[in-house]
Amino acid sequence: MRHLGAVVLLGQAITVRLFTPPWSVRDMVRQLDVMGVKSTNLASVIALFTGMVLSLQTAYTLAAFGAKLYIGEVVGLSLVRELGPVLTALMVGGRVGAGITAELGSMTVSEQVEAMRSLGADPLRKLVVPRMVALLIGLPLLVVLADVMGIFGGLLISTWELGLTPSFYFGHTLRLMTYGDFFSGLGKSVFFAFAIGLVASYNGLCARGGADGVGKATTDTVVGVAITVLVLDFFLTKLFLAL
Known about the structure:
Layout: H1 2-18, H2 25-35, H3 40-63, H4 71-109, H5 112-118, H6 123-160, H7 166-176, H8 179-205, H9 210-242
């Protein structure tokens, strides 16, 4: 409970700084490049093969019920509402979250963070806010990319393995999909991004004990982000379905 309270207080402090100047635009752009742009290849590959596997499995499952032609609807909705946001958040949480914790943890154990405080600088505004903004912008964009690549992966299997035409596949994919489906997945990604940044920053700023402490904090971040994303996904799904 003590750790939970500290995380909540840190989240409140970060939120206040997100909406109050000054902002370091240069640091935000640099972090966006590190966290967002350099994650596009990994996000694309994961989403592409997820769409291909989902399409293949769905085709053989629906074939038993004579409903193989509805593969587009299943693949599209599954990716946009769930798999795109969740898998991308887990990937970013593992790659970017661990990096944030390692960077902040190294600065904490080497007392660079304390030195910034002694010089009158705000470590949260200088170190955490740019990373949080990069996550809040980059993760939703990566989710959009993952949705597109996943649907394209489903198209590849549908045309090569099942003999469907691209126009038929896209027609069925878009037939049941609404803006609400798309924006529900996009909305989840914003909450996931904040959670990833919060968990990673907390573990990094609380790292103790030299290199061993930084390694433990990084491991805690990967595990904590995975659990947080999955728990958040459950409650956000219930919320968006009720709206």
